[in-house]
Design brief:
- This protein folds into two domains: 3-51, no CATH class; 68-138.
- By secondary structure, it is of the alpha+beta class.
- The termini are far apart.
- Helix 3 (86-96) crosses helix 4 (102-109).
- A four-stranded antiparallel β-sheet has the order 2-1-3-4, covered by helices on one side.
- Strand 1 (3-7) and strand 2 form a beta hairpin.
- The protein is built from five helices and four strands.
């Protein structure tokens, strides 16, 4: 499946990854300075068109948009690639002041088989706890 986002006939992005297409669509439909028309194609077929007016963008027209859970999974993957495990993340959050269990972090990742209700504030707290650990380690 290939997505193409065009702005006044100029290709903004061509990708098979939905989050990239969503980001391009979101940005292009909100570009007040550019004006014009943004089109979304999926597998060569036009599925949405939006005339830019007053900075009011268009919602993602193709199924489910990226969620907070998708953001968390990407953050946790980045941390895993930097050798953080669920226990270390939970400990960092606990040390930062938000008691967190390893099971909670596994649930954020989706690896526990159940989905968790996450808040933006919890994710910001997790990121600040991790940043605090990085700063402490570099001193």
């Amino acid at each position: 499946m290939t997505y193409i986002v065009r702005h006044d006939g100029r290709t903004v992005t061509e990708t098979d990854w939905s989050p990239m297409a969503q980001a391009a669509w979101h940005r292009a439909t909100r570009d007040q300075s550019a004006g014009g028309v943004v089109e979304l194609f999926k597998d060569g077929r036009l599925i949405a068109s939006h005339r830019i007016t007053g900075g009011r963008g268009a919602i993602w027209p193709e199924g489910e948009a990226c969620s907070l859970q998708d953001v968390v999974k990407a953050i946790l993957q980045l941390l895993r690639d930097d050798d953080w495990d669920a226990k270390q993340i939970a400990q960092a959050m606990t040390d930062y002041g938000l008691p967190t269990s390893r099971a909670r972090v596994d649930g954020m990742r989706g690896s526990s088989g159940r989905s968790l209700e996450l808040s933006h504030a919890e994710i910001v707290t997790m990121l600040n706890a991790i940043l605090s650990e990085y700063k402490r380690g570099s001193q």
